[in-house]
Amino acid sequence: MSYQVLARKWRPRTFHELVGQEHVQRALVNALDQGRLHHAYLFTGTRGVGKTTLARILAKCLNCTAGGRGDEGVTSTPCGECDSCLAIDEGRFVDLIEVDAASRTKVEDTRELLDNVQYAPTQGRYKVYLIDEVHMLSTSSFNALLKTLEEPPPHVKFLLATTDPQKLPPTVLSRCLQFTLKHMPPERIVDHLGKVLAAESVPFEESALWLLGRAAEGSMRDAMSLTDQAIAFGQGRVEHADVAAMLGTLDQHHVLALVEALADVDAARLLTEVGNLAEHAPDFAGVLDEVTGVLHRLAIAQMVPEALDNAQGDREALLALASRFTAEDVQLYYQIGIQGRGDMASAPDLRTALEMTLLRMLAFRPQGVPRPATTPLPLRGNSEGGTPQGGEAPPVGSQEGGGKSEAPRHPSPSSEPPAESTAPPPPWVEAEPASSPNPSAASEAPSPAGPTASPSSFREERPSAVTRPAESHSMEQEATPSGDAEPEPEPVSVPVAEEPDSAAVSNDEPAPAAVSDETNGHFSHSDWLACFETLGLGGLTRNLAAGCVVEKDDGERLRLRLDPTLSAMRAEIHIERIRQALAEHGITRRLEVEEGEIPASVETPRQQAERLAAQRHARAVEALGSDPHVQQLQRVFGARLIESTVKPAGDLH
Questions:
Q1: For the segment 99-113, what is each residue's pLDDT rounded down to a tens digit?
Q2: How far apart are CA 9 and CA 228, in angstroms?
Q3: Which of 433, 466, 561, 611 has its CA 20 to 30 A from that of 484?
């Protein structure tokens, strides 16, 4: 006997053998059991999902002579053994008229077909007209079919099938009971292929079935045909390497390697992986599509992990990979990937377009505040990157006026701790001075003297305007009316007096000292405030850490209390970055970040930065107010100083 292909050999012969399409199966079975039969059924869906198979099963249900209930009526469980069932399975049932509308589109063919409608069935209970690809009929053919389709004889049933229901006239759609068949998910295809190959005694690898399930694109018939081809290609076996070579598809391991390089922010590895892919001559546009598809699944894994499908057999790997990205990274990478896919048409070559798109993902990933123009992007593939791992932006507000730092950038482990920290202090005792921190207290501190005016600062005793840096606003001047127009005064630059090093830290704050387990057994809140600017945190991680205070440190576990208003930013990836930054400064602890109310008397790093910024601003305003040039402008022109536009020199970078 000649070989029968798997798609025909394993074609379902009853509703219960049907794989998938439960919504259609349930409706038809209930209608058959209750005797509520329509005269015209329309089955729609892509190729290979079971439209014709369903129509043939329904024809057997209408004409089975034995039936599952032991009578001669219509049944939902055809026996498959009576003459009618066997004839329908073998394609020789007289009363099942199958018509290929793609080859019989003329109105004459339709009229010839309808001439026999009035005659009673010869062999079965119903005369069934199965019209495949019905959308290919001409307009005249549809018009000839309409009247009969609406009111056929009681012994006639019309079963229509099409892959493009949009091309059917509304008059035809309104006369049919329509069932839309769904795509077959890869999981269902893989499960069915496994059962078929086990029954056929064909050895297989499950990963190879996932490749076949994806290549089938929702069509079970295509999956069975590809399986036949894979068996022949693999000499009786279905293995992953053979199927990948046969299909010419991209191995999913290469795609995951690219995404892992993105997670590690490793540009050199990224280009190496693209070079490895180029040896297999892949479709680089398809590679980018695969990468964006993985990013889409990573976003699902982060937001709704239980909704992540296992369509490619890599669900567990993606769940682990999703924890290495932030939500911002995934969303931006996906958007860049979609944009890069559209730019490939105008790129010099597809490989260049793929490399530039992947590098663009790293170049524009979220990094917090803008970094200086002279700082290179810190990719792991670039050994000269000068910023912390992960591309965190440098701390903002760490430079005071005159370029003086508020805290040492590289504390020395040998520096002496403050005298009051020789014993483990309470969590916030250092942050509770006699008077709570108040930015307005800066006005009570002595301010540095303003710069002395030089005789050459004025020409011909004309007052001059004070120039400010390019980023700041000019002072508002209200000139008094004058009868004689005077020449425009020549601007003179008046810099704000730089403060000495001792002014970099407020008088009520201890000087920052290096924190290590050797010099101090416990990590206090004052240590946290002192070393915060030296941790090198940036972006969302810095914002999260700036809202924390030290609650407890027992030498093994460091607990931080987080402001409840920042609870939405709490994520494991940020906590891990803070732990690594502390470990680099000698604080090796198991880090815990818990939400809780912070007392008003306790100062967080953010509040400390805001207070010091307010003090610098107050000193700058006072320095400008005491400047003789500014005072002369106020006397002569009635000018006034807009304090909100004043910025200390260190804040202009």
A1: 888 888 788 888 888
A2: 12
A3: 466
